Amino acid sequence: MTQTNPLMNLKKRGLLQSGVLMTAGAVMGCATSSTANNAPATPFSVPNTYVPIAGSSEMFPVRRIYCIGRNYAAHAIEMGSDPTREPPFFFQKPTDAIQLVLPGKVVNHTYPSLTKNYHYEVELVAALHKGGRNIPMDKALELVYGYALGLDMTRRDLQRGMGDQKKPWEIGKSFDQSAPIGPIHKVAQTGHFGQANTQGNIWLKVNGQVKQQATLSHMIWSVAEQISKLSDAFELFPGDIIYSGTPENVGPVVKGDVIDCHIDGLPDLSIRIV
Ligand code: MN
Predict the structure, then answer these.
(1) CA 31 to centroid of ligand 1, rounded, Å
(2) CATH of the domain at 109
């Protein structure tokens, strides 16, 4: 891979060079070195994935990326399902699908291979600092460390093609750079999204034209319900993040398009398809 990937997938080596990880290591003191001493010898290194925490020198380490499907009624209908009867369902993306998009930047996003129908899905992302199994609804939000704005980029033709064959969605959903994300904002700074007073706007524009527009109150399953249901299927751990689903009017982009995303209370996120 000769392609440079500045800041988009925050790799440990890059962080060391930039000094960001050293700052975090200094905060953690000897915990970092003792972890390093216990690590087995390896023939090569594998990068970890981190997302910046707004207003902090610390980074959020990503363990797993969960995504919820069809969580806005109008989007469920456009995808051919009945939003009144289907329980939430989940899929995962690999952590190195993260593409970091810093506020105020328009980050280049490579049009992926194999697809001829590449779609945007703007989504609220919840980031967990606690885990557990079978989390009750009234305890679920205690797991949330913060929130971010994200894109669940989708090779729609491949997703649909695999679905039609009753095969996994992997190739349509879980490819390189398929999870652009902005910095994580602590709950202490933003409150919990989707509550009575935080059911703000979520929208996405392509080349300045509004394509997706809804409010977080349109989510079928709240963040607390998503966490509770997810924890029935998987043991959750600190570092897990959850893409909360997208509103209706998903659609395609082509090379040269600029996507701008917004959720009230978070900085906008922008990428250019190249
Ligand atoms: Mn999605």
Answers:
(1) 37
(2) 3.90.850.10
